Amino acid sequence: MSSGRRWKAACVIGFAAAYGLYCVARMPPGPVTAPDSYGYLAYAPIHLLGYVSFLRVVGANGAMVAQPILYATALAWLGVETLRLTSSVTFSAAVVVAATLIPGLRTYHYSILTESLFMSCVLAFLASVFGFVRAPSARRVALVCAVASLTAIIRLPGLGLFIAVFAMLLMSWRCAGVSRTEFVVAALVPVVLILGGERLAAKVIHGDRLTSLLGRHVYAKAALIEAAAPQAPSAKPEQERLEEALETRYAPIRRLLAQAPPEIRAVLSVYYETCLNTVCVPEIGTYDATVASKAVNDALDRAGRRRLARSPWGYAELTARNYRSLWTAFRISDPALVPALKAFIDAHRPLPFEQLVLRVSPHDPIDFQVSASARFLQPTVTVAGWATGCLALLCLLAALARRALPLPLMTAGLASLAAHGILLLYAMFGVGTGRYMLGVWPSVTTAALFGIWWVRCHCSTLDTTGVRVLSTSFQKFVHVFSTCTDADDIGPRASRAE
Known about the structure:
Elements: H1 3-25, H2 35-41, H3 49-86, H4 89-98, H5 105-109, H6 115-134, H7 138-152, H8 161-171, H9 180-206, H10 214-224, H11 237-247, H12 251-259, H13 262-276, H14 294-310, H15 312-326, H16 338-347, H17 354-357, H18 374-400, H19 407-429, H20 434-457, H21 462-483
Helix pairs in contact: 1-3, 1-4, 3-4, 3-6, 4-20, 6-7, 6-19, 6-20, 7-8, 7-9, 8-18, 8-19, 10-13, 10-14, 11-14, 12-13, 13-15, 15-19, 18-19, 18-20, 18-21, 19-20
């Protein structure tokens, strides 16, 4: 590496290191905790092993130091890979700095929660992807899949990163210089070792107590959708009681949401789904996720699945509502919405489960804090959502056609797919709360910056190159699914490079 390149890399790494040192210097006396924190520290069988094992190694106080340092390290890696792609120290520094401009980010670095480590893994994933895009090889495929797998054992929605992996491999299928077998083996080995190893280790450690959060999430979603009554009651008394509760106890929530305008319904739906994951369900009865036993979680899962199966369209509608909510995190403090939200709530009090959902007494006023900045922040997030959504769709179409996009556009599309893939799993199996958006925001800013870079570098051919690639990809997509041909018809077979 020449002295000029070393100087540029040192500048980019310096920005990341400065952020890490600043976080460590401003560290509070003790870690920030939440109800979930105690389950992580106690190695609870309801959590994946990734984060709890990390805490077992570094401890609660050590996490306050390790988390910002790991984030800064991942930032430096991403910055260096960006520099290798673009040769621009200014652009690379912008990618690094943009990933630090997240409200409350430092608080999460000091918290016993998965956010900080998850974001570090997402940044590392993007860096490994950019390395592969720059110089495809089987070794880099293995690295990408290993990082994606590590992300998924910290938070399960990290599995959404494999959508980007799938697209990355298909777009590089013919130019990677390796055979298909090498590609597939390199991708599968780390996945099997890390994901399979985590489940095997969890079974060995927890035995019959091993459970997950999925049951309560499924049950909460089932409580929010209308569905036909079951044709026959469950043979298990506990499951029958849970199904009866879905029909009757939570019906007032569904009636309230049906009366609300769409924007207000989205806000109230997040509040109610959050509560239905915790204290609104007597069988759970607490905010501590570690309390409910495996038997309770399994019963919640069975009852919820039976109801969701009777109303697939209702589940799809709720997923879409959650997905939109993830991109409207600032709406709850938007001056344009808060008055209407408050008026609706006041007109319908007492709300179902009001004391549990909003944590107020029956005669207490309900108010929401208004932020003038939300009027400008929310449109920015919305535009970013649509822009990255279009980039992700273009990337998917190009992948299905096995067409390589221009380098800046490919990186922007893959970063967009990573963000939207994770958020899709959150919407399907979690709650549409803005907290989850924080975990993918570095990916969103990186995708947006690479999209701007592509426009800047290719503005003279923007109207032809991008449209031509999109048109070709869409025609291939339609051809495959209209003729129902074999998967190999998607594109010509790759020939091994000599």
